[in-house]
What we know:
Elements: E1 2-8, H1 25-31, E2 34-41, E3 46-49, E4 55-56, H2 57-70, E5 84-89, E6 96-102, E7 105-110, E8 120-123, H3 124-145, H4 153-161
Antiparallel strand pairs: 1-2, 2-3, 2-4, 5-6, 6-7, 7-8
Helix pairs in contact: 2-3
Amino acid sequence: MLDIGYSLSRRFPDPTHIDYSRADVHTLRHDLFCGDVYLADTKADREVSTAWGWVPVLDFAWALCDTVERLDRDPLGSRAAKPQYAEIDFTESTDRMLFERRFGWVDVEADWMPADEEPLTFSHAELRRETRDFLHDLIADLTDMHEGLGDNPIVWDLQARFPRMA
């Protein structure tokens, strides 16, 4: 089973005087909500996680949703034998999280994992559902903490672009 989570950093707090209802895309994706993220296989008790404290968690959730959709561009979908690749790069470093889809399964690994460690493997359907749930849960948490964020049209568009799945 897949679990995606985050923690916000105390070392990199958000600016104190910001109108979250009017924050632009760049600010929302790169300047706010810094912390760490993880993807965990709870059955195998393994995870891929950051420990840097500066990862913009909303940007990560957004990029993760985009990445999962990029892995689904082959018209054959889960029947496609040809591997499909995507990655998330972390702009403040050279590290990347790598995704490879073959048939209905996605392997997830990261540049910082030991070379002999096996990637985490999830079904694409589960990964899609959980990434969208993570995005919506994260937005709910952030709007509870930051007045006006729930009124930001960029956040509305983001939620509409990646709706929760049944």
